[in-house]
Amino acid sequence: MTEKFERHRQPWTPDEVQKLHTLAKKGMGLKAISKAMTRSEESIHTRAKLDKLKIAKLR
């Protein structure tokens, strides 16, 4: 039970949106951003689409 709880369906705060923009501009992948922000990948993907951000596809 060392894994952090991911918030489900919580509204985005301005600080979180700013952090998402910063991490996406650094070229981080979706999984890394999800882990750093403790949000679900689906939530981050949806918000990035709204803000027209491009998230790197790391393979």
Mean pLDDT comes to 87
What characteristic shape results from the CA principal axes?
A: globular
The main β sheet shows up as: none
Strand content: under 5%
Task: Calculate Rg over CA atoms.
Answer: 11 Å
Low-confidence residue ranges: none
Terminal Cα span: 28 Å
Number of strands: 0
Number of separate helices: 3
- Element order: H for helix, E for strand: HHH
| Residues in helices, as a percent range | 40-55%
The structural class is mainly alpha
Structure description:
It is a single chain. The chain is built from three helices and no strands. 8% of the residues are buried. With 59 residues, it is an all-alpha fold. Helices cover 51% and strands 0% of the residues.
SSE blueprint:
Layout (H helix, E strand, L loop, with lengths): L13 H12 L4 H8 L3 H10 L9
Q: What's the short version?
A:
The protein is 51% helix and 0% strand.
What keyword list fits this structure?
single chain; 59 residues; mainly alpha; 3 helices; 51% helix
